[in-house]
Amino acid sequence: MKMSMRFFNRNHQQAGLAILKPKCGYQVILALVVFISICIVSVQSITDVGTVSINPQSTFRRNFWSTADADHYKLYEDGEVAELVLDQLAASGFASNTRYLFGRIGIQMKLHPGDSAGTVTTFYTSSLSGKHDELDFEFLGNEAGKPYVLQTNVYAAGVGDREQRIKLWFDPTADFHNYTIHWNKKMIVFMVDETPIRVYKNNEDLGVPYPSKQPMSVFASLWNGEEWATQSGAIRLNWAKAPFGARYQSYDVQGCEVPWYKGEVGPCISSDSDAMLERATIQNLSVEQLVRLQWVTENMVVYDYCTDIYRYPDPHPECSRNSGLQDSSSDFEANDSLSSTNSGDASSSW
């Protein structure tokens, strides 16, 4: 499958998450920016569009700061539900107050129904450094009646282009679903509800970079990616359908925290964090999880960089280890939620 290079031109900056790259003192400047942003959030009014009063200790008040204005970042349900809005005026996003080096990071999302072509809705982690680490869930919009595509990607030490794309076996606009990243010293597992959709193992012994040294913040964004998101940019965003919205709730994180003001990663890298990571993250897939991963690999994957011989005539060394195809004699009888691959026309409202 030959793809336009625009396909890989992702730009989170459209969501207000611009990455600063000064010549010196980067960490100090970045920490100062985040500290000021957190202070602003802590003193701003607790009245938001769509709400009467927001509990300052609610999930999104306590854990995140907004990169958008009140028209593009809205809180509901006493601050337990956040909505990102995209229109011709602005994109939107939010970022965590805390950084982590390894852990379980998840959230529930409900995507925009109907025509969403050209939109990119994300939940991801990033170190925001020059040679950055990043773990991505990216939902690529589509025309009405056609399903979203879920793209995952891994960056380590600034090296990316590890895209994998799948179809979903449910309509992500009809209800909330869980999207979780299990990230430990052995592997990264991308989960959708109870199903692992991708495994990316630590292959540093093969000379492959792995995100094991840089703490990452948690982000979400909704932005215009029409140049590449839908059919490699052939289908553009239809602003007549704006505003576009996505909702987030039930944020769940258990990880090794790295404070902004100290930046000490030693306790997270050392064996001190092993017991916590054993409890919080998947260290080895169960037989059922292996079978589910194989089912996704065989039935849902629509693009995998490991099989793209046009971009990569020489295979990546990690691909054989990360393959979702398992040697298993178990038969997988998909239940109704997994065996149904028809998303239909997502025309439901919130």
From TrEMBL:
PROSITE patterns: GH16_1, GH16_2. Its main location: secreted. InterPro entries: Beta-glucanase-like, Beta-glucanase/XTH, ConA-like_dom_sf, GH16_AS, XET_C, XTH. Its EC number is 2.4.1.207. Residues 320-350 are annotated as: Disordered. It is found in: Secreted, Cell wall; Secreted, Extracellular space, Apoplast. The keyword Glycosyltransferase does not apply. Contains at least one intrachain disulfide bond essential for its enzymatic activity. Residues 47-248 form the GH16 domain. Pfam families: Glyco_hydro_16 (PF00722), XET_C (PF06955). Keywords: Apoplast, Cell wall, Cell wall biogenesis/degradation, Disulfide bond, Glycoprotein, Glycosidase, Hydrolase, Secreted, Transferase. Catalyzes xyloglucan endohydrolysis (XEH) and/or endotransglycosylation (XET). Cleaves and religates xyloglucan polymers, an essential constituent of the primary cell wall, and thereby participates in cell wall construction of growing tissues. Belongs to the glycosyl hydrolase 16 family. This is Xyloglucan endotransglucosylase/hydrolase. The lineage of its organism: Eukaryota, Viridiplantae, Streptophyta, Embryophyta, Bryophyta.
